[in-house]
Every structure is written in C-alpha cells, then in structure tokens.
Amino acid sequence: xxxxxxxxxxxxxxxxxxxxxxxxxxxxxxxxxxxxxxxxxxxxxxxxxxxxxxxxxxxxxxxxxxxxxxxxxxxxxxxxxxxxxxxxxxxxxxxxxxx
Length: 99
Description:
- The protein is mainly α.
- It is 77% helix and 0% strand.
- It has a single domain, classed as Up-down Bundle (Chorismate Mutase Domain, subunit A), CATH 1.20.59.10.
- It comes from Paracoccus acridae.
- InterPro entries: Chorismate_II_sf, Chorismate_mutase-related, CM_dom_sf, CM_II_prokaryot.
- Keywords: Coiled coil, Isomerase.
C-alpha cells in the first residue's frame, strides 16, 4: 500500500507501529554486531572508542539521510546517540562486565 493510499489514522498508526517493530529488529541486529566488534577489538587490542570511526559512521548516516530527503543534522544526532550506546556496550565487554 502506498502512503498516499492510507485511508485513515487507524491504518496509518498500524503501519507506523509495524515500521517501529522493524526498526527495533534492526537495532537488535546492530547490537549483535557491536557485541562481535567488542570481541574482535578485545582480541586485537583495540579500544571501544575510535574517534575517526565515530565521525565516519555519523557522516555516513548524515549522507544517507540527505539522499533520502531527511534532515542530516537530525539523523547525525540520533546516530551519535547510537554510537555512544555502542561504545558503552563495547566498554562493558572490554572491562569484563559481560552479561
């Protein structure tokens, strides 16, 4: 169904809820990848925070946002929060605080 064909708020809200569920699923996949990154970093002696990579990830998100007509500054802000959460996750692993 095209967005323009959504007939009412109930249908629209249901579609938003579906997308939110998909986004959470993607975030769970990202979380699993970050866990693997922490294991690899531990093995090869890298720190959780690598500033150049942080900036690269944020810039990539901004570029992708702009190419899709989204506000790059907003998306970069959201991605900075995601990256900070990922760094905290890696730090917990590297410091021996594993779940």
